[in-house]
Design goal:
Blueprint: H1 2-16, H2 20-23, H3 26-35, H4 37-57, H5 62-75, H6 87-109, H7 111-119, H8 127-160, H9 170-196, H10 206-231
Helix pairs in contact: 1-4, 3-4, 4-5, 5-6, 6-8, 7-10, 9-10
């Protein structure tokens, strides 16, 4: 994440300036940091991320890591299109952005640990813990997906209004693709939970199917993250 923060600053400086040359120009970078809302939020986010790195090196408890990581992730909702609306509507918009980031971070961030958990599901020493983790993720996943969908609808409304995305506008065309991928991912999550999980007991095929379904979710999430990174650099209309 720390490396991503640094690359993000360079890409933003280049986008605000005159191309790649400004992405590495110290004067442009300092101007972005000092004179823009993005720069102010980026500085705070970088400090929080550095704290997260230190806590990780010190092997701090998972609760502290989770809290600091959530704060770092939430700060991203204060810039970009999420900060384009003023007044009370702008505050509501940013709250929606933060909820969208936290719920998607929980869902997507849990997929890799879930995959490792499934690989050890039948090991006697950790089978009970793996089963408990799967059930907890399944329960919290429902809440995360619900918040993700509702906040996504609200964020889309604030950015392009109550209209169907126009494929002639690059931003809205990519947004439509993102929405479609998110829909497929939600459908896959439902299949994983209500079709594959019940097939796990008694050495059924559910564990293998759930593993493949989780990998498919990870591939879709990578595509969504790529689209989000592109959308953040484009005008909505």
């Amino acid at each position: 994440m720390l490396v991503g923060e640094i690359l993000w600053l360079g890409a933003t400086a280049g986008n605000m300036g005159e191309g790649w040359s400004d992405a590495f120009n110290p004067a442009t970078l300092l101007l972005v940091l000092d004179a823009t809302r993005f720069g102010h939020v980026w500085t705070v986010t970088l400090v929080i991320t550095a704290v997260l790195v230190v806590l990780n090196l010190l092997r701090a408890g998972w609760l502290w890591l989770m809290i600091v990581a959530a704060i770092a992730l939430s700060s991203l909702g204060l810039v970009g299109h999420g900060a384009s609306v003023a007044g009370v509507a702008g505050v509501i918009n940013q709250v929606g952005q933060v909820l969208h980031l936290l719920s998607s971070g929980f869902w997507l961030g849990a997929l890799i640990p879930l995959l490792f958990c499934l690989r050890r599901f039948h090991e006697p020493a950790v089978a009970a813990d793996a089963d408990r983790a799967l059930r907890r993720f399944s329960g919290l996943g429902h809440l995360a997906v619900a918040i993700l969908l509702l906040s996504g609808v609200a964020n889309t409304y604030f950015v392009i209004g109550a209209t169907v995305p126009d494929p002639r506008i690059p931003y809205q065309a990519l947004l439509a693709v993102k929405i479609a991928l998110a829909g497929v991912m939600c459908l896959l999550a439902i299949v994983n939970r209500y079709v594959f999980v019940p097939r796990i007991p008694d050495d059924g095929p559910g564990l293998r199917q759930l593993r493949h379904g989780t990998i498919a979710e990870m591939v879709l999430s990578a595509g969504i993250l790529l689209l989000v990174s592109l959308l953040g650099t484009m005008p909505p209309t």
